[in-house]
């Protein structure tokens, strides 16, 4: 009984054949020639490739000590479901997410104690000034967004974040293509060369953030990054008086998928940046393994201003540490059409004037 061995061309996928004239494997489809020893080494790399391993050690947060939460209260919004933590002297009358009334539920319980907190550096007046600057040049903005009493409702909120630290050991395989063109007096020529590109290495990731609130938009929080963790403090309730803090409702385990996706993309970008100049490069295979994966729980400072306009909710967010601002703004239809009508009237008057001039010069 005989065995049939077949090797695939790494360039086009065709079945390779041994060419005795050149003592190499040759592809009858793309005419690539591959050294036998090189192919054996390539096959060995593929056989030894390890599967992805992106598991984490769950150790974020800690238990509150006895008496530590006696002065903490939880306020619940019956409209959006947001749960806000605050000290007993903080008046939390409206939800920072949807601006609806909130009711006090009772003492804080059933939630982990944060490991770290980044205290607010941007005060309320600075946050309001940043909001005003954000509105500059928005001439079609509805008046409610510029109302002074409304702007005074901007709220300081500590947002829960899970921070993921790990080392990454990765192997990547890419397909590279280089082309060369030239011509003589009779013909034009194009040469295409294919390359199997292998990369291996280790990267370190510190404090990859994923917000732990289902009410807070992930895209919004990612837009006001980065936060400078070097200014983080060991958590103490002494930082909370006068501020609200969102009670997390998405645990560290449920946040792992987002963290893994961010780590994978960053790893792929870092490895791709090491590849030299090719006409094109495309990834073919990857193996990413996490080492010493662990999570922490932190509270990050954010200023929030919530506005509802024509049934849609708009949120302005400002990084309470760095001042970076984001927020979508609507267009007032009445202001737009009023301006459109004015432009139309000016255009009509100009056309009428041109018609009169044409008449007088006829």
How does this structure look, described?
The chain has 362 residues and is α+β, with helices and mostly antiparallel strands. It has 3 domains: 1-48; 72-168 and 199-331, no CATH class; 335-362. Helix content is 23%, strand content 35%. It contains 6 helices and 14 strands. The protein has helices at residues 36-48, 124-135, 148-151, 218-223, 252-272, 333-360, and strands spanning 17-19, 24-26, 33-34, 72-77, 83-87, 102-107, 116-117, 155-183, 188-211, 233-234, 244-246, 280-309, 312-319, 325-327. The strands form 2 sheets. Strands 4, 5, 6, 7, 8, 9, 10, 11, 12, 13 and 14 form an 11-stranded mixed sheet that branches. A 3-stranded antiparallel sheet has the order 1-2-3.
Percent strand = 25-35%
Rg, Å, rounded? 31 Å
Number of helices: 6
Following the backbone from N to C, one meets helices and strands in this order, namely EEEHEEEEHHEEHEEHEEEH
**Could you give the count of β-strands?**
14
Features of the shown structure:
alpha+beta; 23% helix; 35% strand; 362 residues; 3 domains; 3-stranded antiparallel sheet; 11-stranded mixed sheet
Entry summary:
The chain has 362 residues and is of the alpha+beta class. 23% of the residues lie in helices and 35% in strands.
How are the secondary structure elements laid out?
Blueprint: E1 17-19, E2 24-26, E3 33-34, H1 36-48, E4 72-77, E5 83-87, E6 102-107, E7 116-117, H2 124-135, H3 148-151, E8 155-183, E9 188-211, H4 218-223, E10 233-234, E11 244-246, H5 252-272, E12 280-309, E13 312-319, E14 325-327, H6 333-360
Parallel strand pairs: 7-12, 8-11
Antiparallel strand pairs: 1-2, 2-3, 4-5, 4-6, 5-11, 7-10, 8-9, 8-12, 12-13, 13-14
